[in-house]
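# step 3/5: fold
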Amino acid sequence: MATQIQWRRGNTAQTASFTGAVGEATVDTSKNTFVIHDGITAGGFPLARESALSANASQIQASFNQANSATNTATAAFVRANNSISANAGGTITGDLIVTGNLTISGTTTYANTQQLLVSDNLITLNAELPTSLTPTENAGIEINRGNALANSSLLWVENAGKWQANTGSATGAYFLADEAATTSAGIYANGAFSTANSATNNATAAFIQANTDFTNVSVAAGTYGNATHYGVVTVAANGRVTSVSTFAVSDPSSLAFAIALG
């Protein structure tokens, strides 16, 4: 008869509360695996079964493949970036570029060859390198390139004048923009002149109405009066209103030639 060997055994809960001797092996009947003990640790150290090792091996292999693919992609990106840009010689990037963080460009000219420029900031600062301790002396503004045929136009802040200047590009096409105080003062004068003119117009209208009323109240028969050769001609309608006074001239040079048309 074959010899049968049985090891100390118990389910997972029983094994977890058991502290075996150093080097002792027991069996976890729930997990169907050996547990090796060190004489100190309760529950010992379960050994992995072949099926678990196979599953873990598959997961490890999949993780390795994914990591390896990512490494290859990163390596290819590094090689491309390294070939595109040299720290000493510069280079060209083909495709989109996203920079997370601040971007500082040191050079003479920054040229953006784009069809659309979008800036999220609502304030663009010019002369940004000017220290706050220095008094500004340089003019600053925005210039528009109008090609070779026409001079450039600009909206310029002129320091020595303390004003904005609109420049059309011609020799006589620079105009300072009026400040608020000057605009307000001009507006006050304009409003005053308008009020005076409006008052004079109202007075003239009232005088005309009064004169026309007084003349209408005069009883005059309809017809034509006067002498066209020496004195002129006045035409009166049936209602007694003067409709026209013709131009006339007299031999006396001190007299005045005039023409009036009345409705």
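# step 4/5: annotate
Residues 180-216 form the longest helix (37 residues).
# step 5/5: archive (pending)
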